[in-house]
Amino acid sequence: MASDTTTSTAPLLIDAKAARVMLCMGERRLWMLTNCGAIPSRKIGKSVRYSPEELAAWVALGCPTDSRAGEQIRHAMREAALAADGPKS
User: Fold this and answer.
1) Does residue 6 register a pLDDT over 60?
2) Where are the chain's structural domains?
3) pTM tops 0.85, yes or no
């Protein structure tokens, strides 16, 4: 018997519309913060996608608007994930 592959999990990446809803902000504000690097995002081809976990971390840090804040959040989350994995033997 085949296992059910239609499990309901949260998406790893969301589009701008979902990010605007999650952050309760308008389209122009989101693009302004994305373009200056304040909000962590990823470009896939011509599309921009956002990680819900990184957006939550951005809000937890007080929604910093300085450029490069997005990269700092992404780096901190990457380091935390590596630390949680522990040393490989």
Assistant:
1) no
2) 16-85
3) no
